[in-house]
Amino acid sequence: MAIQIYCDRKLEDGKPCKTSNALNAKKCSRCGAEFSRERKYRVCVSVKGLRVNRIVQNLTIAREVESTIKGDLVRGEYDVKHHKVDRYPDAERCLGAIPAMGQGA
Ligand SMILES: [Zn+2]
Question: What's this model's pTM, rounded to 2 decimal places?
Fold first, then answer.
């Protein structure tokens, strides 16, 4: 189980960087981009050989998603094949209600 900062900055060749960085990182270890308040988070949950990766908008959502996915996987309820959505309805509702984190970082 892990939550990491996800770098989606476009590189010179037009492809996103997609590098995961430690939560306390100030900039991307690969491309050197500084993480702004618009940073994204990658949630990686691995249970019983199943692995689920999600990209979310903030750390609060990341933690919720992490525990939700983990619970679903443990109960065998998570449909990996059909679960392509990028966010939970609850997470979407939270967007905007949560003060931006990392401001001034
Ligand atoms: Zn990067």
Answer: 0.69
